[in-house]
Design brief:
Layout (H helix, E strand, L loop, with lengths): L1 H19 L18 E9 L8 E9 L5 E8 L2 E12 L2 E6 L3 E3 L3 E4 L5 E8 L8 E8 L4 E9 L6
Parallel strand pairs: 1-10
Antiparallel strand pairs: 1-2, 2-7, 2-8, 3-6, 3-9, 4-5, 4-8, 9-10
Length: 160
C-alpha cells in the first residue's frame, strides 16, 4: 500500500512539473541545477512511437561516481505531458510492464535504461517531434537533487 501511495505521489509530482515546462528543448539545458555531485547521464534518447498517439520511450545510462547511492524518484520529459518509470518483469508466465517507485544506482556503477528492461514512458508527446531533434529530461533524486540533460529524438526502428 505504501509503495502504491508513493508511486501515485511521484507520478502526480511528475505530471504537475511537466505542465510547467511543456516546451521542447532545442539548445543545451539550463544546467544541472542542484545536480548530485558525481552523477552524470550519457546516451540519452527518446524513441518516438511507431503509431502516432502512443507513448514514446526514453533510455539513457546513469553513471554514479559518488560515494553514496543515487535514487531517482521522479522524471520529467519536456516534450511529454506525463512521464513514468517502468520495468519489464515476468508475471504469471508472461512479460508485463510494471511501474517503478525509484531507480537505484549504487556508488561506482552505471545503470542502463534499455529496451525490454527499464525505461521511461513518455505519454502524450507534443505534435511535430521528429528524428534528429532533442528534448530536455530532468531526473529528481531522493533529497531533491536534480539533473537535466538533452535526449536525442529518434524514430521508431532507428538504432536504440
Amino acid at each position: 500500500m505504501k509503495s502504491k501511495l508513493l508511486a501515485a505521489a511521484a507520478l502526480g509530482f511528475a505530471t504537475l512539473s511537466l505542465a510547467a515546462c511543456g516546451e521542447t528543448a532545442t539548445e543545451e539545458p539550463a544546467g544541472e541545477v542542484d545536480a548530485m555531485p558525481g552523477v552524470s547521464v550519457e546516451n540519452a534518447r527518446l524513441i518516438l512511437p511507431a503509431v502516432a498517439g502512443n507513448p514514446g520511450a526514453v533510455y539513457f545510462d546513469i553513471k554514479n561516481e559518488s560515494d553514496r547511492g543515487a535514487s531517482v524518484q521522479a522524471v520529467d520529459v519536456a516534450a511529454a505531458k506525463s512521464a513514468a518509470m517502468h520495468e519489464m518483469a515476468e508475471w504469471s508466465g508472461k512479460m508485463e510492464m510494471m511501474p517503478m517507485d525509484q531507480i537505484m544506482v549504487q556508488p561506482g556503477t552505471t545503470f542502463a535504461l534499455e529496451p525490454g528492461k527499464v525505461h521511461i514512458m513518455a505519454s502524450d508527446l507534443e505534435e511535430g517531434l521528429a528524428s534528429g531533434g532533442s528534448t530536455e529530461v530532468t531526473l529528481t533524486f531522493l533529497g531533491g537533487d536534480k539533473i537535466s540533460f538533452l535526449a536525442e529524438i529518434r524514430a521508431a526502428g532507428e538504432a536504440r
